[in-house]
Protein 1
Amino acid sequence: DAGVIQSPRHEVTEMGQEVTLRCKPISGHNSLFWYRQTMMRGLELLIYFNNNVPIDDSGMPEDRFSAKMPNASFSTLKIQPSEPRDSAVYFCASSLDRGREQFFGPGTRLTVL
Amino acid sequence: AQRVTQPEKLLSVFKGAPVELKCNYSYSGSPELFWYVQYSRQRLQLLLRHISRESIKGFTADLNKGETSFHLKKPFAQEEDSAMYYCALIYSGAGSYQLTFGKGTKLSVIP
């Protein structure tokens, strides 16, 4: 298994544009997590899914952020419209069960100009 | 609310010196504690978890419920230990789930 796959690895966009980040969890894992990493705040949990259902989105900063998991092998995190303060590294992680070890993807480095 | 505190953003030690990365948590239940590590240009990965009580790469961490701490220790630091370390708390029980990461400590081992 290639592990958790994220795309793109780097994204540079202009303020106001829509950004879509993608994640493919490890096959068989039923929990998926989206995180944001910044120097100031460290690693923040944005949202997590269990069996494709969003369980807790209290970490999503604003309505500009949305996440979906249409099936067990794919999830997206969308920012619309993007702002410079959204610049960060966004990680996706999956686990066999929400209480188990999480396996992280390589992250997407987002820069909003 | 649950909280994980890593008081040091940056910790520098000389090679061969002992290392202790501090982690304190606040949670009224019985959480599970983890240490994750992120080496340069690599993915965040699990280093160890308190229930396994094992030593990984020479690192150990003991859960001290009285002091609500889960400090990561290694007797002799190596250059390859230089990385970002995150302490994490998970509580997963009937009808409840809490997941919190600390803000991380960057360990720099000086040759």
Protein 2
Amino acid sequence: SQKIEQNSEALNIQEGKTATLTCNYTNYSPAYLQWYRQDPGRGPVFLLLIRENEKEKRKERLKVTFDTTLKQSLFHITASQPADSATYLCASPDNYGQNFVFGPGTRLSVLP
Amino acid sequence: DTAVSQTPKYLVTQMGNDKSIKCEQNLGHDTMYWYKQDSKKFLKIMFSYNNKELIINETVPNRFSPKSPDKAHLNLHINSLELGDSAVYFCASSQDGTKETQYFGPGTRLLVL
């Protein structure tokens, strides 16, 4: 069955460094991937969407890549700040285009 | 203005009870969703619904039922609550199904005792 995996359950980095989060998908080919941010006690908030024919997308300090050969998306936060600490979720439409499939998330902690 | 709202924010109840969670969106979206996020933080789709079609995740027990009085509302009714139903439930909406981004509500934290 189709599945999204996010390699790290938790990731700690120093302030100012670049955080890189990984999303891998198996058993399907999504037309696009989305990245969401979830803070404790809140619902996920959409950050970026990248389509299968796009290699890279940027928004301020955020960058997302999509490699259909590796079946992988990378999410980068440059010049990370403690305020970037949150759980980041990868998601895509399922193979039938009916619903969204979410990865388990990576909890990022940016240490001052 | 809150785009997607849910009530209540917290719900504590006894096993066997029936409860409802309400969801409203003021974005004019045509598709609404219910998700369950368990203690391991895994977000799983339960239902998606637009005016024409209800799509049910086959793993969802039939004790759970969505009810939509109109396009802006999708309520979740749960019968005979069980301990394993304890989780955070999120409502979300999107324009035109999976072709567009979802907007999530703040969540309802359900605890079944």
Protein 3
Amino acid sequence: DTGVSQDPRHKITKRGQNVTFRCDPISEHNRLYWYRQTLGQGPEFLTYFQNEAQLEKSRLLSDRFSAERPKGSFSTLEIQRTEQGDSAMYLCASSVGQTGGDEQYFGPGTRLTVT
Amino acid sequence: AQTVTQSQPEMSVQEAETVTLSCTYDTSESDYYLFWYKQPPSRQMILVIRQEAYKQQNATENRFSVNFQKAAKSFSLKISDSQLGDAAMYFCAYRRDTGTASKLTFGTGTRLQVTL
């Protein structure tokens, strides 16, 4: 197993454009999480899935953000009408989901720059 | 809402020495987990150590140990025999242990520099 992968690693877009990121979790991990990390800050929770069900969304996830995990495997995070404030590192993590203390394995992140 | 505070933006330690990173948190819950994550430059975040709140014994993982003070809501990380590879951002994180609540709440991080 190669770990959590994210694509693309870097994305530069113009304000107002739509972008979509993909996350491939570790196989057989039931839980998948999205976080956003801005410069000098710790990651902030955006949303998480248990298999294909989206169980929790942060208030940070405005109407312009949508996340899916259609078959309980990979997940996509789409940002519509991007704004400069969306510039950040978007991190994906996955975990087995058996206990509250199970380890979340993080991907390398997608760095978004909105110009 | 739970909050995690790391009051040391940067720390420096000489190779082979010991350093302690501080973390405090605020919660009204009694069941939770605490974590220290390491984020090396341009690399993925990895788990360093985990502590269950119901356990009084402090967690230890090789050169890494914690000092968990539940009443004081304090969770510090001690790195012994520091190595150059320990240089990274270190994040303290909290996770409630109730039902499906599985998100991590992170602090702002401490950048650790290791010098020769």
